[in-house]
């Protein structure tokens, strides 16, 4: 039986684990949604409890002492086991996986592959829901969410969730061959400002893409707004204008000539990445078996797509996949 006299307060252990993993009081406070000063008090209380220095200041960040490192590894494993056990209990013995996903990625990438996951995991009951907006992670209506997180949107994620970025593709302009014939000659990026541009919900993607090409504009960009990636691509196939996209959404459009990459006559545009596809889940759902298996599956699918895809002659198409985040 455990000696409860040796069991420190759970709040102090959670603070210590977060500081050791994130390297600072402020990021730990943001994740745990408490003031960083409270995190500092928890750390000091834990050090008094165990009688050993665990954390030391290193410039603007914090790092663990040698004994703190060893203790942190054990505490992390113990808290992970608690999270896993709680998740198993909440599932009541059933393997279910409730996934939300941005509609464009759901229609253009997941739709052709989700059956592979279900065939390989027949014991998991999958509920897959395309959704424009992220779910309320405070509820229990979803286990994980698939989002395309642009750099200017990442801070909007709740601090209580974890994420795994599984791809960060290059973004480039495409149009139908018929549309391209009607366009003025493209010699540099600013020439695209005279072309019909297709947008999702706003013009921020195009503005960011132009900025990374060295082109700034103070006016709102004109063009049709279609709100979702699969709708802008469909409009591009119909010759309505130019849209920004990436190879994860194109399928065989380039290979079959339904769309072509728009580029200057004698050069190419600068490769641009301003977002990544990520799996997002609450901490208590991160290690449930169904989600852990789905996480491994999607990373394998990305690796297979990277090694097996035919890359067209487009400089910006190289290295479009980038794994990262917490596994």
From TrEMBL:
GO terms for molecular function: DNA-binding transcription factor activity; sequence-specific DNA binding. This is LysR family transcriptional regulator. Residues 8-65 form the HTH lysR-type domain. The keyword Transcription applies. Residues 308-327 are annotated as: Disordered. Belongs to the LysR transcriptional regulatory family. GO terms for biological process: DNA-templated transcription. Gene3D superfamilies: Periplasmic binding protein-like II, Winged helix-like DNA-binding domain superfamily/Winged helix DNA-binding domain. Keywords: DNA-binding, Transcription, Transcription regulation. Pfam families: HTH_1 (PF00126), LysR_substrate (PF03466). It comes from Sphingomonas oleivorans. InterPro entries: LysR-type_TF_proteobact-type (IPR058163), LysR_HTH_N (IPR000847), LysR_subst-bd (IPR005119), WH-like_DNA-bd_sf (IPR036388), WH_DNA-bd_sf (IPR036390). Coiled coil: none annotated. The keyword ATP-binding does not apply.
């Amino acid at each position: 039986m455990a000696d409860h006299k040796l069991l420190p307060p759970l709040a102090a252990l959670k603070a210590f684990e977060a500081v050791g993993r994130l390297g600072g009081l402020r990021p730990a406070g943001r994740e745990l949604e408490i003031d960083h000063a409270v995190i500092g008090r928890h750390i000091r209380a834990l050090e008094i409890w165990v009688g050993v220095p665990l954390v030391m200041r290193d410039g603007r960040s914090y790092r663990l002492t040698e004994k703190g490192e060893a203790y942190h590894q054990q505490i992390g494993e113990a808290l992970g086991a608690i999270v896993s056990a709680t998740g198993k209990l909440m599932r009541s013995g059933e393997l279910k996986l409730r996934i939300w996903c941005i509609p464009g990625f759901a229609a253009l990438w997941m739709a052709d592959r989700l059956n592979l996951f279900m065939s390989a995991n027949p014991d998991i009951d999958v509920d897959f829901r395309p959704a424009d907006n992220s779910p309320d992670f405070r509820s229990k209506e979803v286990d994980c969410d698939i989002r395309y997180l642009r750099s200017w949107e990442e801070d909007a994620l709740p601090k209580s969730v974890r994420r795994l970025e599984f791809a960060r593709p290059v973004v480039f302009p495409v149009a139908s061959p018929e549309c391209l014939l009607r366009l003025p000659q493209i010699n540099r990026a600013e020439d695209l400002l005279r072309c019909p541009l297709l947008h999702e919900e706003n013009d921020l993607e195009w503005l960011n893409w132009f900025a990374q090409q060295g082109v700034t504009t103070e006016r709102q960009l004109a063009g049709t707004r279609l709100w979702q990636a699969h709708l802008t691509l469909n409009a591009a196939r119909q010759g309505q204008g130019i849209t920004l996209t990436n190879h994860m959404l194109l399928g065989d459009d380039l290979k079959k000539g339904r769309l072509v990459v728009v580029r200057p006559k004698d050069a190419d545009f600068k490769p641009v990445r301003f977002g990544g596809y990520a799996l997002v889940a609450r901490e208590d759902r991160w290690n449930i078996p169904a989600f852990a298996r789905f996480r491994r599956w999607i990373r394998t699918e990305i690796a297979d797509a990277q090694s097996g895809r035919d890359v067209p002659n487009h400089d910006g198409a190289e290295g479009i996949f980038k794994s990262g985040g917490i596994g």
